[in-house]
Amino acid sequence: AGSEPGMSAFDSFAGYLTFDALIGNTDRHHENWAIVAETHGLAPSYDHGASLGFNVPPHRRGQVEQAADRGTARHFPGRPQLVSLAREALSRADKAASVTWLDRIDALDLAQVEFAVAQIPESWMSEGARTFVVDFIATNRRRLLL
To answer: What is the DSSP code (8-state) at residue 120?
Structure first.
């Protein structure tokens, strides 16, 4: 997500935070978002390396709810949970923008997520890690839509 037509910069940034909550990106800070000079809009989101439970050890991959609980916005004051931060941003965004972002989360087809994750070579990601990532996204999706 970057700038969306008809949305303010804040409304678009609320989309960044919603996506961060979905994928568990704990590293959103002042150096990993940008404005495109030509359009003065937000650049598409980037730097998602601290996502998808990247630091969850194999013996904890069965604890998806706990991993999701540990997902915090470590560069924000008070280190809020990612889903809480996204909800706060969405509550402050224009109603239409908030509905847009939540509709996109709701429309996410978890079977497509599972299919995409299954395409990752086993030399890059174990079966246990794949299962964890799909369950992690499903958990965060559910939490965002509560």
So the answer is: S
